[in-house]
């Protein structure tokens, strides 16, 4: 399995009515040096200023971003070129991040290289420590900045810590 941690920034709560503005991905291995960053032009005229503000971009800036189809096709190629085996999607908030990545892949390419499932790092950690009130975020090394590559990197570091220091049985080949 090739574990890929993804983080998404958007201008609203759901795909199609709102837009994925940017996303980052990191392949989880001992080097953590394979990353992807995409900035996508909005697909909708709807946007929520408070949601967009989290990304740090203005609406005017987002209108200059790359065409979503091109970014998603480039991401699919990046996955194909870097995944040594079946890619597995991991995220801090997979219910949110997955819905955007899945929708964009299916809409723009007709296929999602991750298949039909995703994994939640927070839930995994809660299970490992047998406590639904514990949070994994203290395991991050990279500061959470809402730059999606930084955020994916911090989550990848936490997942690697769970494997190397806490005994999580997961294949990263």
Automatic annotation (TrEMBL):
Tree of life domain: Bacteria
Coiled coil in keyword set: no
Key words, A-Z: Exonuclease, Hydrolase, Nuclease
Alphabetized SUPFAM superfamilies for the sequence: Ribonuclease H-like (SSF53098)
InterPro entries: Ribonucl_H (IPR013520), RNaseH-like_sf (IPR012337), RNaseH_sf (IPR036397)
Keyword Amino-acid biosynthesis carried by entry: no
Domain Exonuclease: 2-168
Protein name, UniProt field: 3'-5' exoribonuclease
Organism: Zooshikella harenae
